Amino acid sequence: MTRLPLAACAAALIxxxxxxAVHAQPAPxxxxxxxxxxxxxxxxxxxxxxxxVLIRGSRVVEVGPDLPTPEGAAVxxxxxxxxxxxxxxxxxxxxLEQGFAEGLSAVAARDQGVQGDVVxxxxxxxxxxxxxxxxxxxxxxxxxxGLFLDLMLExxxxxxxxxxxxxxxxxxxxxxxxxxxxxxxxxxxHLVAGEYRVVNGVDDARAAVRDAIARGxxxxxxxAEATPQRTRLSVEEMAAxxxxxxxHHIPVAAHATSDDSxxxxxxxxxxxxxxAYQVSDDTLRLMAARGVFLVPTDVSLERALEIxxxxxxxxxxxxxxxxxxxxxxxxxxxxxxxxxxxxxSDAYGPNPAxxxxxxxxxxxxxxxxGLTPAxxx
Length: 377
Ligand SMILES: [Zn+2]
Prior knowledge:
Layout (H helix, E strand, L loop, with lengths): L5 H12 L2 H5 L6 E11 L4 E2 L3 E6 L2 E6 L9 E10 L3 E6 L11 H30 L2 E6 L7 H10 L7 E4 L3 E3 L15 H5 E3 L3 H13 L5 E4 L11 H13 L4 E5 L2 H10 L3 E4 L5 H10 L2 E3 L5 H8 L8 H20 L18 H15 L3 H4 L1
Parallel strand pairs: 1-5, 6-7, 7-8, 9-10, 11-12, 12-13, 13-14
Antiparallel strand pairs: 1-2, 1-3, 3-4
Helix pairs in contact: 3-12, 6-7, 7-8, 8-9, 11-12
The structure holds zinc ion (ZN).
The site of zinc ion has 4 residues, from loops.
């Protein structure tokens, strides 16, 4: 007979003696009571005064004035503060940092060829933390994340290895030939394939969606057009992507800036349009009729001045205001025509205040455009 080491015997004995129910018992959920000085209620769209928020595990279970403190609960006293629900950034790129005048080919060469996935992921983990500290509890990470590094970061956050918001990742964006890298006759290091899933035809489009979902994608990102490339996905390819994603109950977010591309993506049935800088009223009406979200990735005046301060030739303030005016006009036209709007920052530049603070600037941009602060929240 083989003799088990003593520790193994003890472990076997304990396992044998414990009833099955003990093994199945979940760990007790931590209970937290937040005492808020002034609470924003997103359902009524305003501040509602002092409220207590009771949280068990990861769920808010009760909100009301002067709640009793449950036994063993941790109390967070924020009576001197305003409290809002966790923010959601509908469009970000935790794995991307693009400096001024740096093309996406140069960024891809640095990320893939010089620094590699480990350095890139560590930097992304830092940005995820900045997001959380700035009040964001969820983000959609939409491509430019190498080969599924967004989903790996999500795993690390979920496992508690690094702090960060809940990430809904897409993996590499589904794009026409060339991805978003500058047109070039050769790509000897396969930089395009390291950042994008190039789609060739309807069958390939469906396969690309299934591959992303199999790896854990919770949103599909597509490039209806891929400026500075001149290539575009066909309506048939986009429709196939949408059909396949719908079968799996996964939303499709389409990068589109020109009116033609926005219209084609909406006709193909996508869930949201990202950017839509040049969208016409007619196309906005179609978006409203089909319930397609607009994600206006706009920057505030303060952020625009900050970004342009690093440029070799700083544009005059009127020029910046004029540029921002186009975005503001399209946001207010969308609101007037009844388009559903979701917040998205598209923050991918360096920011001394941190990525989360930069992302919050999109809310300032919406208020500068004419939304009320409550609408922006
Ligand atoms: Zn983006």
